[in-house]
């Protein structure tokens, strides 16, 4: 049996209420998030399964004919989970004998409390079921994933992670596998904050589960209010802390479930964290510092996420305070942070190898577009100012139908030969993915990945970093050349098609034909084709440098960051691009030059004349709203 290639995706999750309660039989409230595990699965015929995650340097293979009845491991990891998935599939009678090659990308931080391992297992079980032609309901998928990751190894965890990932959305999950759907909380966003400290899963799970189960068994077998426990005075101080935290946390969860729209949710969330910290000993100094910074910047609720001893925290934040919270936690030492809303559950979709993949960079901070003085000079109405302040510039609506600017670019790319696009968004951006979904052109697959902002910084680390994130999210593109475009530019007709004619080149644009204000055009990098050994890109050129690179007709040719390079070469260039001392960024032109140097192939220059649409300042958007360009 040979199957058609496909993608299997499973999201991570955050526990909102009931942390460390599911394995005690209490219900929990959890929500799926957009970050997760993406598998691209392609067929083999020799019975061997392989999985590669290039970004993490992880490789695994297993011959189906050699799997046993059980995988033995006291501390299982990805390799053991993958093998156990095959074992349990074979035990269930699934026909997975064909084998397959799987490329994997996980954009969840590892060992952080967001269920990266469970997302892998859910995506893997879902993939094996599809190969075997087995139709699983979301609940059945969660049960099979729990069997693979937990039951198979006799591990101490519950089933919250697997159910949340398989079902998606926000649910109250009971110990008997019953689930209740809860509506998404409005009037705010979740900000996930990675402390950078790996959590201690097995240490805390063993203590919190084993000690508490023994405690309740010794004192009657049922949890009750501390004042109702006759033997309360016989408990040690630590046992009293465990008992009280368990009782208080189940109360907080039940209050939240009974009134999910309550304005008290953030306060209950923070109290839940206090019980996890004081009663179960799960927080750290760094998580406490990050929580204090988040609340000082406007967060209304805070709690740790996951097994504790490190990992992530979760803040409930009014939407207008989200950027302030991101900046505050980065200043306080957060490794990274994301704005998230609830996400859909695990899914599969057909996949075909892209002939002309592309990255669109849309993670910039849009600081010039949000310049208050520029808005004042243009006398923009309040509604338009709010739009500029709340949306990334690539998502600003143009035309009467409200389509975002990025939709024009995607349609241009699809019309001129691009068949798959990964849009690189900021980790602070929670709205763009939904805004662009209705405008995805036919015949072009579009997905997103997210660029985080480094610790202590206020903006992403440049275009080379953004391209690196996009390439790492698509290891299946290896062997292809990948095009790169800016999300706030619309190239002239024909430029994209011209770029697809080279495997290793760039489009050079005649500066005087760009149709842009001279002061803006003069700031673009210029191309020096007379450089010894090939092409040279000159960033921030002086007048003398510009005059030196004019062609025989006096024309200056500039770069608008339209490149097409082999995947491996471009990834190498991005990984090795240094941080620019003045800008604090790793820049794409530098990465491209390093990529060309790495391959030893001179960058091909494709000359083009035509007008660019550049969305940089508020006036640019004002012009587009009255006279939008055709796609």
Model description:
By secondary structure, the protein is an alpha+beta fold. Helix 2 crosses helix 3, helix 8 runs antiparallel to helix 9 and helix 14 crosses helix 19. Helix 13 (432-436) links the parallel strand 14 (420-426) and strand 15 (445-451). Helix content is 34%, strand content 22%. The strands form five sheets. Strands 1, 2, 3, 4, 5, 6, 7 and 12 form an eight-stranded mixed β-sheet that branches.
List the helices and strands and how they pair.
Blueprint: E1 6-17, E2 28-43, E3 48-53, E4 58-63, H1 78-91, E5 100-106, H2 116-132, H3 138-149, H4 160-167, E6 170-173, E7 179-182, E8 189-194, H5 201-218, H6 237-258, H7 265-278, H8 285-296, E9 301-305, E10 312-317, H9 322-331, E11 336-340, E12 347-350, E13 357-362, H10 372-378, H11 382-390, H12 405-415, E14 420-426, H13 432-436, E15 445-451, H14 463-472, E16 481-486, E17 489-490, H15 495-499, E18 505-510, H16 518-521, E19 526-528, E20 536-538, H17 543-548, E21 557-566, H18 567-576, H19 588-599, E22 604-608, E23 613-614, H20 618-626
Parallel strand pairs: 3-5, 13-14, 13-16, 14-15, 18-22
Antiparallel strand pairs: 1-2, 1-12, 2-5, 2-6, 3-4, 6-7, 8-10, 8-11, 9-10, 16-21, 17-23, 18-21, 19-20
Helix pairs in contact: 1-2, 1-3, 2-3, 2-4, 3-4, 6-7, 8-9, 14-18, 14-19, 18-19
């Amino acid at each position: 049996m040979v199957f058609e290639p496909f993608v299997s995706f499973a999201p991570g999750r955050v526990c909102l209420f009931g942390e460390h309660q599911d394995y005690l039989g209490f219900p929990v409230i959890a929500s799926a998030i957009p970050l997760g595990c993406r598998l691209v699965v392609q067929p083999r015929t020799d019975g061997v399964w392989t999985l590669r995650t290039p970004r993490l340097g992880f490789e695994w293979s297993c011959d189906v004919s050699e799997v046993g009845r059980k995988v033995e491991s006291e501390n299982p990891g990805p390799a053991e989970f993958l093998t156990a998935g095959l074992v349990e599939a074979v035990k269930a009678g699934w026909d997975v004998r064909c084998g397959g090659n799987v490329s994997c990308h996980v954009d969840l931080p590892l060992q952080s409390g967001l269920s990266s391992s469970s997302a892998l297992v859910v995506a893997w079980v879902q993939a094996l079921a599809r190969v075997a032609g087995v139709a699983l309901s979301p609940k059945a998928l969660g049960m099979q994933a729990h069997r693979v990751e937990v039951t198979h190894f006799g591990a101490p965890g519950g089933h919250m992670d697997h159910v949340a990932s398989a079902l998606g959305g926000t649910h109250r999950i009971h110990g008997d596998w019953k689930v209740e759907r809860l509506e998404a909380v409005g009037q705010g966003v979740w900000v996930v904050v990675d402390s950078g400290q790996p959590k201690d899963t097995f240490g805390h799970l063993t203590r919190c589960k084993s000690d508490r189960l023994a405690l309740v068994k010794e004192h009657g077998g049922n949890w009750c209010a501390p004042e109702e426990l006759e033997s309360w005075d016989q408990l040690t101080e630590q046992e009293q802390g465990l008992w009280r935290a368990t009782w208080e946390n189940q109360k907080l969860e039940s209050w939240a479930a009974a009134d999910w729209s309550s304005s008290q949710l953030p306060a209950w969330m923070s109290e839940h964290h206090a019980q996890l910290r004081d009663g179960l000993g799960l927080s750290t100094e760094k998580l406490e510092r990050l929580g204090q910074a988040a609340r000082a910047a406007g967060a209304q609720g805070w709690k740790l996420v996951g097994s504790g001893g490190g990992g992530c925290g979760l803040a409930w934040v009014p939407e207008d305070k989200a950027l302030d919270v991101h900046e505050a936690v980065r200043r306080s030492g957060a490794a990274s942070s994301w704005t998230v809303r609830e996400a859909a559950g695990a899914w599969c979709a057909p996949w075909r190898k892209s002939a002309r993949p592309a990255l669109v960079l849309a993670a910039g901070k849009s600081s010039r577009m949000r310049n208050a003085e520029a808005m004042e000079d243009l006398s923009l109405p309040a509604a338009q100012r709010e739009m500029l302040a709340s949306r990334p510039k690539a998502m600003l609506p143009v035309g009467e139908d409200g389509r975002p600017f990025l939709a024009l670019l995607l349609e241009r790319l699809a019309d001129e030969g691009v068949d798959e696009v990964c849009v690189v968004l900021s980790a602070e951006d929670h709205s763009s993915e939904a805004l662009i979904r209705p405008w995805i052109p036919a015949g072009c697959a579009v997905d997103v990945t997210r660029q985080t902002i480094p610790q202590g910084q206020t903006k992403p680390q440049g275009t080379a970093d953004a391209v690196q994130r996009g390439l790492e999210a698509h290891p299946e593109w290896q062997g292809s050349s990948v095009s790169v475009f800016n999300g706030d530019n619309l190239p002239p007709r024909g430029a994209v098609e011209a770029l697809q004619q080279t495997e290793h080149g760039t489009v050079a644009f005649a500066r005087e034909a760009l149709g842009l204000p001279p002061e803006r055009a003069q700031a673009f990098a210029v191309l020096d084709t007379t450089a010894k050994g090939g092409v040279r890109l000159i960033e921030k050129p002086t007048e003398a440098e510009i005059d030196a690179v004019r062609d025989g007709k006096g024309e200056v040719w500039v770069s608008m960051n339209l490149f097409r390079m082999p995947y491996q070469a471009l990834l190498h260039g991005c990984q090795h691009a240094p941080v620019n001392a003045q800008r604090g960024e790793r820049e794409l032109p530098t990465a491209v030059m390093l990529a060309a140097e790495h391959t030893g192939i001179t960058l091909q220059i494709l000359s083009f004349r035509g007008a660019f649409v550049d969305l940089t300042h508020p006036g640019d958007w004002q012009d587009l709203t009255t006279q939008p360009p055709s796609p």
